[in-house]
Write a structure and sequence with these properties.
The complex is a heterodimer.
Chain A: E1 4-7, E2 10-13, E3 19-25, E4 32-38, E5 45-51, E6 57-58, E7 67-73, E8 76-81, E9 90-97, E10 104-105, E11 109-113
Chain B: E1 4-6, E2 11-14, E3 19-25, E4 32-38, E5 45-50, E6 54-58, E7 61-66, E8 71-76, E9 85-92, E10 100-102, E11 106-111
Parallel strand pairs in B: 2-11
Antiparallel strand pairs in B: 1-3, 3-8, 4-5, 4-9, 6-7, 7-8, 9-10, 9-11
The chains are: A mainly beta, B mainly beta.
Chain lengths: ~110, ~110
């Protein structure tokens, strides 16, 4: 149980384009989903918290117009990196929780912006 | 500033030994505590959760919580090379927050 998927697992895009990453809870309904990014050999950094049907709550310093989050259903959240630049290259990981506080992580999406 | 501190390591143990990973947290009202394992290039995987003082055992893993000392640890018995990973301590600070605060992780290497 508690399986979370992400798609795509790896994406390469050109500078200035937008990239959408999907996060799905496969066998449970996620009341809340979280988006993290992680640079090589660094710790997880929480970007935003999203609840189904409401606007995401972004952490301080994260640009909401650059990282668009849509939580359309209890099993799907998407993160769109708009006008991507090389400094946005990172490992993006979503997680989901149900009624407890445990978070279950997706496998991550490695974004490379050229 | 609510913080979770871990020794970054690296921690190196021989195969078959007990690996001991430690974590301290700053917020006394924290309620829920988690250990995640992260292999290089992969996402974190939940391996243990603990909510009350004392020990919780699951196979070769034992989590220990001492709320008075604001300390949580993870013991791995009979360590295997496949246990080599970074172990992340995570704390839910309570107060209605859904967020987890993560430590920076301890890198464990189990030598065959």
């Amino acid at each position: 149980g508690a399986v979370v998927s992400q798609h795509p697992s790896r994406v390469i895009c050109k500078s200035g384009t937008s990239v959408k990453i999907e996060c799905r809870s496969l066998d449970f309904q996620a009341t809340t989903m979280f988006w993290y990014r992680q640079f090589p050999k660094k710790s997880l950094m929480l970007m935003a918290t999203s609840n189904e049907g409401s606007k995401a709550t972004y952490e301080q310093g994260v640009e909401k117009d650059k990282f668009l989050i849509n939580h359309a259903s209890l099993t799907l959240s998407t993160l769109t990196v708009t006008s991507a630049h090389p400094e946005d290259s990172s490992f993006y990981i979503c997680s989901a929780r149900t009624y407890g506080v445990e978070q279950y992580f997706g496998p991550g999406t490695r974004l490379t912006v050229t | 500033q609510k913080e979770v501190e871990q020794n970054s390591g690296p921690l190196s143990v021989p195969e078959g030994a007990i690996a001991s990973l430690n974590c301290t947290y700053s917020d006394r009202v924290s309620q829920s505590f988690f250990w995640y394992r992260q292999y290089s290039g992969k996402s974190p995987e939940l391996i243990m959760s603990i909510y009350s003082n004392g020990d919780k055992e699951d196979g070769r893993f034992t989590a220990q919580l001492n709320k008075a000392s604001q300390y949580v640890s993870l013991l791995i018995r009979d360590s295997q090379p496949s246990d080599s990973a970074t172990y992340l301590c995570a704390v839910n600070m309570g107060g209605g927050s859904e967020k987890l605060v993560f430590g920076k992780g301890t890198k464990l290497t189990v030598n065959p």
